[in-house]
Specification:
353 residues; alpha+beta; Jelly Rolls; eight-stranded mixed sheet; four-stranded antiparallel sheet; 10 helices; 16 strands; globular
Length: 353
């Protein structure tokens, strides 16, 4: 049951069917072009859409969420057999409740000359735990796995899921390229914004919150932030809570769970690549006020984002076609790892909170 059933803004998320790119024999080139343009228009308008017809079946999503629950149901001591390092890199393994603090660059700027930005940002705890997984071939960040005797076949399943989601991501880049009308080197440059060795699969658990705690504590599940990769695929359970900010009205729109869809949202690299034709929009997992929450409190929530990223050493530059007299260049070229180092600077601390 979702506890967030109405949106706050005047807009709603576009749902785009990409079936013409999955079961190609059943569709024509004109069907594919129509779907591609619909995806690009939806992403241009809000920075995020819902995607259906992606080829990932209901059973696959349920299996992935079931594995996620199995992981987080483990005793804390077992989860800590694959601990996230105390620093931001490598971004792998298990992070306990309160260890990570997600924020936006606006949050950092708002602190001004504050000597301890991290301490200020952590005044409201992020009430969640997570587990980070990358490619087994990543030369920069090696995976930190729960031992197989603790959770048998977890590594095998998640490694296969990573590859499955990367395959879908490659298709989505092809769809975006067609919708934008990219050809030749322009197309190749867009495709370079995804590298199968440098993406990230994240498993998230937001524990249940009692109404009493909602009344007494300042608590956040996931504050407003932007993703700093190319784009993100997000699968969520039926509980709801995901909200995305309309860049025009600045209202937050509830992304109600919809069976057979995932949310696709633009990241910073695709925003820079398109000179703001696509915008990396703020999004959050909200916590309702105690006065509107059910007497039973908030149930646990599970979600699975897959962050599509370029190679760490890849330099992202704006595609020249997006630079005009009316829309001059807004971004200098930047290496992905250097950009990420700045964004993730304050996110981790050694002690649990």
């Amino acid at each position: 049951m979702a506890y967030y059933t109405s949106r706050t803004g005047a807009e709603s998320l576009t749902t785009v069917d990409v079936s013409p790119f999955i079961t190609k024999a059943e569709y024509s080139d004109s069907d594919r072009l129509k779907a591609a343009k619909a995806l690009v228009e939806g992403l241009h308008r809000l920075g995020f859409v819902k995607v259906k017809g992606h080829g990932i079946g209901k059973g696959e999503v349920q299996d992935a969420l079931a594995w996620t629950r199995k992981l987080f149901d483990l005793p804390y001591a077992d989860k800590m057999k694959a601990p996230h390092p105390p620093e931001a890199m490598p971004h792998r393994g298990y992070s306990g409740i309160g260890k990570e603090k997600v924020y936006s660059q606006e949050d950092v700027k708002a602190q001004g000359d504050n000597a301890d930005v991290a301490e200020q940002l952590r005044k409201v705890s992020d009430f969640k735990e997570s587990y980070e997984i990358g490619s087994e071939e990543d030369p920069v960040q090696q995976n930190i796995w729960i031992p197989d005797p603790v959770l048998s076949n977890f590594r095998t399943y998640m490694t296969a899921l990573y590859q499955r989601l990367f395959g879908i991501s490659e298709i989505l880049l092809e769809v975006i390229s067609l919708g934008l009308g990219l050809v030749g080197n322009e197309h190749a440059t867009l495709i370079d914004l995804a590298d199968d060795r440098h993406c990230q699969l994240r498993l998230l658990h937001y524990p249940a919150v009692s109404k009493d705690r909602l009344q007494k504590d300042l608590i956040a599940r996931l504050p407003p932030h932007r993703d700093w990769g190319t784009f993100t695929l997000l699968f969520q359970d039926g509980g709801g809570g995901l909200e995305l900010k309309d860049p025009q009205s600045e209202d937050y729109i509830h992304a109600e769970p919809e069976e057979g869809t995932f949310v696709l949202n633009i990241g910073d690299m695709l925003q820079r690549f398109t000179n703001d034709y696509f915008v990396s929009s703020l999004h959050r997992v909200s916590v309702p006020g105690a006065d509107t929450a059910p007497e039973s409190g908030l149930p646990a929530r599970y979600s699975i984002p897959f962050f599509v990223c370029p190679d760490f050493s890849h330099k992202i530059a704006t595609l020249p076609r997006f630079i005009t007299t009316e829309s001059p260049a807004k971004y200098d070229p930047v290496r992905f790892d250097e950009y990420g180092a700045v964004v993730s600077k304050y996110q981790y601390q050694e002690e649990e909170s």
